[in-house]
Amino acid sequence: MNIPYIIALVFAALIVLVLVAFVFMKRGAGRSDLVILEIKNKKIEHPEEKIAHDFESLKMIIKNKKSSAKELEAALSLILKHYGSIHPKLGIRVHPDFDKYMEVIIRLCHHPRVTSKMVVSFDKELRKKNPEYEKDINDAITKGLNSRV
User: Fold this and answer.
1) What phi and psi, each to the nearest 5 degrees, are found at residue 24?
2) Is the predicted pLDDT of residue 49 greater than 80, yes or no?
């Protein structure tokens, strides 16, 4: 065999290996960036999926002073969606379960990241779903806003 021929083959094989490695490195970097973007988009698009749907968990989100505005909105929409109807009044007395809603309203008014839009829309929807509790909901909102620091 001719020595220059062997050197040329080795050199050609080395160039092919470098090109193949370069192509695969580029593909891998692009894919990992895409995966990171997909994870970030899912996290932003669906905050309600990560929240437990039981009333106590939703109430704890509202109690937590570190909850973000998006978490508050998600918790409030889930409360209205799953627990929006309060049990009927017992004659002229409110149902004992109304105390949970009253606490949610007061805690909502106290939360540092709540907006007036959130309070007004929650109040409006809760009144719409429970017209017999309109005065009691109004009293809870008034109590919450008056005791706000």
Assistant:
1) -70, -35
2) no
- Contact predicate 121/77, CB 8 Å: no
Predicted local distance difference test score (pLDDT) of residue 22: 64
Amino acid at 139: D
d(CA 139, CA 99): 12
Confidence of residue 69 (pLDDT cuts 50, 70, 90): very high
CA distance 147 to 102: 14
Taking the C-alpha atoms of residue 61 and residue 75, their distance in angstroms, rounded to an integer, is 7
Place of tokens 């409360």: 79
Taking residues 101-125, report their average pLDDT: 93
| Percentage helix, strand, coil for the chain under 3-state DSSP, each rounded to 5 | 75, 0, 20
118, 108 contact by CB (below 8 A): yes
